[in-house]
Design a protein that fits this description.
6 helices, 8-stranded mixed sheet, 42% helix, binds NADP nicotinamide-adenine-dinucleotide phosphate, 16% strand
């Protein structure tokens, strides 16, 4: 059992909810967060009634909401060990870069890149103080520059940028005890992935939890799927 503290963004459904289930079952003090308190409470009812599952509202695009979660976590636990940047939006299969609605693209980047970045900025100082941190950015193969296809422009560009953020943070934080990595969960049956996806949430979450549990000498500034490194 571990008493490490983990926070998962966008955890009221889909892969995020399953990450909470897996981390809590491994003994982590796990904070399920959601932008809607009502949806968060419904999600909590789907989980075992464990003492080590906690709840906080969190909208990652709202700086005040991020500040509030930071203040409350530091007051309650004194630290955060694991940050899972899971919240993501807008797999925009209906548009292409050549005809994209830029307001929609901006909104996607605001969540998928800036929201995750804001969360990292909030918690890196306390992780540095503690000499320990695991930041897992839930990205997508759609954001890999290597072999990138056309289509899904807002989503693909936002996840490519998230991968760039992983590299920047991972390299800047070398030798601080903080490891920062990106992960692709594969194509997962959720509201975003749809019912035809070939993976369950259990399978999708597994590789994310694996990165949350990296040992001291684990990799940083890398991109993974199923525990294996893939190209950015
Ligand atoms: P999902 O079922 O659509 O769930 C997305 C979650 O993000 C929801 O809980 C949603 O909350 C939350 N969210 C959205 N905007 C937010 C914000 N501003 N603040 C806080 N939470 C916010 O998606 P999923 O399939 O579980 O995907 C999870 C992650 O995996 C995403 O980053 C996605 O890009 C990535 N991914 C998924 C697949 C796949 O096949 N499913 C493949 C590759 C990568 P609400 O309920 O309030 O909307």
């Amino acid at each position: 059992m571990s008493n490490k503290i983990a926070l998962v963004t966008g955890a009221n459904r889909g892969i995020g909810l399953e990450i909470v289930r897996q981390l809590a079952s491994k003994g982590y003090e796990t904070i399920l967060t959601s932008r809607s308190q009502e949806k968060g409470e419904q999600a909590l009812m789907q989980l075992p009634d464990d003492q080590n599952i906690h709840y906080h509202t969190l909208d990652i695009v709202d700086p005040k909401s991020v500040e509030a979660v930071k203040t409350d976590i530091i007051r309650e636990f004194g630290r955060l060990d694991i940050l899972i940047n899971n919240a993501g939006i807008n797999y925009d299969t209906w548009q292409e870069a050549q005809n994209a609605d830029l307001d929609e693209v901006k909104e996607t980047i605001e969540t998928n890149l800036i929201g995750a970045w804001r969360m990292a900025l909030a918690f890196i100082p306390i992780m540095k103080e503690n000499g320990f941190g695991r930041i897992v950015n839930v990205s997508s193969g759609a954001g890999a520059l290597n072999g990138m296809a056309g289509g899904t422009p807002g989503y693909g560009v936002s996840k490519a940028a998230m991968n760039a953020l992983t590299i920047k943070l991972g390299k800047e934080l070398q030798n601080t005890g903080i490891l920062v990595n990106s992960v692709c969960p594969g194509w997962v049956r959720t509201d975003m992935g749809g019912s035809n996806a070939d993976r369950s949430v259990e399978e999708g979450a597994k590789g994310i939890v694996w990165l949350a549990e990296l040992p001291k000498d684990g990799p940083t500034a890398k991109f993974f799927r199923d525990g294996k490194e893939i190209d950015f």
